[in-house]
Amino acid sequence: MPKRLIVTADDFGLSSQVNAAVERAHRDGILTAASLMVAAPAAAEAVDLARRLPRLRVGLHLALVECRPALPPSEVPDLVGPDGWFRRDTARFGAELFFSPRMRRQLAREVDAQFAAYAATGLPLDHVDAHQHFHLHPTVASLMIRVGRRHGMRSVRIPAEPAGIVRAVEPGSPRALPAITAPWTRLLGLRLRAAGCAVPDQVFGLSWTGAVTEERLVGLLDRLPAGTTEIYTHPALDGAYPGAAPGYRYRDELDALVSPRVIAAARRSGATPCGYGDLV
Predict the structure, then answer these.
(1) Phi and psi dihedrals of 140, rounded to 5?
(2) Where would I find the H helices in the chain?
(3) Tens digits of per-residue pLDDT, 52-72?
(4) Structural domains of the chain sorted by starting position, each given as residue range(s) with its CATH number in brackets
(5) What DSSP assignment string belongs to 159-195?
(6) How do residues 95-113 score in pLDDT, each as one tens digit?
């Protein structure tokens, strides 16, 4: 089976620092795709940038936690806090979605609004994923599939990370989070395939979220498995902007994506650079 490689930057549009890093990592490094937060402060700037980068594959980063909604907060009052941002108590929020028809109706309107906002950009929809992988939640997954298919969604990330390869790259790497999410990941993959959506064979970045460094990237690319692999990252010039995650090594990730060692390892892997659209 041939190797194909998608390298994605999440949070496109969250800040000018992120947007500038996406441009550099794509022009000078191995980045092939970016996931757009349509309601983020620098989303319009990101869309203008994407139009100047025709080879950059752009998709929707469905954002339903720890960020601003696309709809006015008054239209999704049960989904936001006093500051008008989506709730940050993600576990409790997810549990309440199971039992509240009112919350689910608000969520459905917000999901539709984000897909519609993306469509309004005129950019091709290369893929869909979700901030904090919140589409692993069965309720969110159902809405994403139902609404997304109306908007032309054909490819979706599922965070299925082979723990063995991660530990081969870095013995002693944590495995708790992938182990916890694995059942939901398998369920999501089954549902997406049944809905006719393309998904990658494996995705890396879960164990090293916010710290996909040069050493880790080189080690991973030298062990790249067959099939289609996505590596998702969070590059930025720095972390000095609202919404930045504490402890994320934004600049290190940008430096890794443009590192000559990483570029050489990507070539050495024999993988064809691509986007999700190439899976369809």
Answers:
(1) -65, -40
(2) 16-28, 43-51, 90-99, 101-121, 138-150, 163-169, 176-194, 214-221, 250-257, 260-269
(3) 999 999 999 999 998 999 999
(4) 3-279 (3.20.20.370)
(5) ----HHHHHHHSTT---HHHHHHHHHHHHHHHHHHHT
(6) 888 889 999 999 999 999 9
